[in-house]
Structures are given as structure tokens and as C-alpha cells.
Amino acid sequence: MSALRVVQVGFHADAERRPAASLLRAWPTLSAVAGAASRAGIDVSVVQAAHRDESVAIGGVAYHFLDDGHHPPVRLPGGASVARRPARILRRVAELAPDVVHVHGLNHPLAARRLADSLGGIPVLVQDHGSVPPDGWRRHAWRWAYAPVVGVAFTAREQAAPFVDAGALRGDVPVFEVLESSTAFTPGDRDEARRATGMFGDPCLLWTGRLDANKDPLTVLDAFERALRELPEARLWCCFGHAPLLDAVRRRVVRSPALRGHVRLLGRRPHAEMELRFRAADFFVQASHREGSGYSLLEALACGTAPLVTDIPAARRIVGDAGSLTPVGDATALAAAMVAWAARAREPLRRAARARFEDALTFDAVGRELRTAYESVARA
């Protein structure tokens, strides 16, 4: 029996207009996820919107980068615009004769509908990558656009409910649990990592992510300030990129005598450095209100760093019993988790975190989940 042929499709073109080799380095998940499906026994090809035509092959997977943006969008009366039909992408997907088409992202509904209509009944699976349910007239546009799809994928099945409740997805659409990605990070010597990074603390806590309302750094600071009453040697190290709340975070730290001496705002750090920082930390802390998946959370578990995070669907699915889950916005509960988990022996926690990763969160696990989803929609 021949392998199932799947074409993974990305309609989002790189804003920096990078060539294929640079783009694959900048978007490592693109090749890592395709490679995971390939190792799971799927015949995978990738068709990706780009700013120049290129084709490359990596590990048995063919990547087709297509410039399909020569023409501006169609302008409608009133100032609205509609993207032109991505004819070259649609044509290349059809030429590859897939058994299943996997569209990455829910944010290109019109393109996804045009693709489904062009395929003559070939099943289409669409995977969410952290999108927000639409409102207003866009709900009805999404409902029409995604009516033909035979399945949707989220990190956790519960994440589909807001889209169904909004009317953006039909209520009977099959939902598959598929991790967005994984990581190649590994555990390492904690003391060596601390020497390399300068991190310390008992416990040593690491925050990563944007400083914005969704990540809720102010709740983390409130919780840490409370925990310091019982953990006077603790330190919180904060790595972040986009930071609309940076001024508020700085003010919160400066006005607190406790936080001033215990919080370090490191700003943006190279991704290659983060493996050492996760290894150096005892705990990973995050207070997100919503996550599509949680790349930092996956990296923490991969390095054996126990997570203290909020009880949201993606985190519940990823963490299992290897960390703490506290209610969103509840600084008291998060502080209690910091204190309680700090009292536990660290090495068993590290082993449990890494075991959780190896059991359910590796790229091989991603490949298995994709294969299950593909085989199911192929039978639909």
C-alpha cells in the first residue's frame, strides 16, 4: 500500500521577503513539522507563499515556494478589498495530486475556500496557529469559507469551542488534537548553565514571552512579590521581545523594594541562548490568558524545567501532571504554587518534566498526531 500523499499549504508570505534558505532558518517549524509527518510514514510536500519561486528538498520532503502576489487585491466599493485568487498556489497543489491537503492557519479563510473548491473533493484539514475567533460580519465569512473542510486541528480540542460558538466553524466539524510544533532543546547541567548565563536564585524562575496584556506580566510580578515573603532567595529572570507593557512593568518593579532586588529584566535574547537559560532555571513561569500552543512551555519541559503556568486549554494539554496550573489572573494562586513547588525536591521535578516531553511532546509525537488526523480525514 502506497503512503498517503499530503500537501501542507501556507498562504502567509514572509513580510521580510527572505529567500527559501533564509526563510527555512527563520521559520524552523515549517520544515520540522513536515519532516515529522514524513518520518511518521506520510508522503509530504509543502507549498508555501513566498516572494520568489524556489524549490528545495530536505529529508525527503519537497518544498515549493511560490510568488503568487504579483497582482494587488481587488478594491470594492466603500474601500474594502478582497485578495485575488492564489491561482499559482492552487495549481501547484493540484499538480501534486494529494490525498489530503493540510492548510496551516485559520487566518486566510477566502484562500482556503478557493483551494477547497479547486480540488474536486480532495479533503482539506485546516490547523489553527493561535488565531482569535472573528466577530461581526467576519464570522459569517469564515463560516462560508470553512464549510467544505473535513476537519480542523487545534493543540487542545477545547480550543475549537469559541470558533463554533462564534458561528465561524460549523458545530459538526471533526476536531483533531495536533501540537503546532516541538523543540530540539535538551536537558543539561544546571550549574554549568548558571555559570554561562549568570542566573541564580533559590528558586531560580524564568519568564519568557511578550510583555503584553495576554501574557499578563503584572500578575506574575504580583505573585512573585507575595512568594518572596517565604522565598527570600528567589530570583525572577525575564526575557521578552515585543513589550508594550515594559514601562508598566518597570514602574511595578521600581516601586516595590522586594521586586527591585529580585527581578532582572533581560529583554530580547538570542533563541540559541534560551536553551541554557531554561536549563539554568528551576521553574518556568507564565500567566497567559490565551495560547494557541506554547513554544516556550514546550522548550521548558524539553529542558526539564517544571512549569508554573495558567490553567488554559493548551497548557492543560501540554503540561499534564509535570507542573502547576493556576487560574488566569489569580496572583494569590500563582504565588502559592511558587512556594509549594519550591519546597519539592528539584531533581525529581526535572526528570518528570523531561519525561512528560518525551512521552507526548516530541516531533515524533507531532508526526503521529498528524498521521492520525490525515488518515481520518482521508476516510471522510
TrEMBL record:
Q: Which UniProt keywords apply?
A: Transferase
One GO term in the molecular function aspect is: glycosyltransferase activity
**SUPFAM superfamilies of this UniProt entry?**
UDP-Glycosyltransferase/glycogen phosphorylase (SSF53756)
Domain Glycosyltransferase subfamily 4-like N-terminal per the UniProt entry, residue ranges: 33-146
InterPro entries according to UniProt: Glyco_trans_4-like_N (IPR028098), Glycosyltransferase_grp1 (IPR050194)
Do the record's keywords include Nucleus?
Answer: no
Tell me the PANTHER family matching this sequence.
Answer: SULFOQUINOVOSYL TRANSFERASE SQD2
Q: What is this protein called?
A: Glycosyl transferase group 1
Organism per entry: Gemmatirosa kalamazoonensis
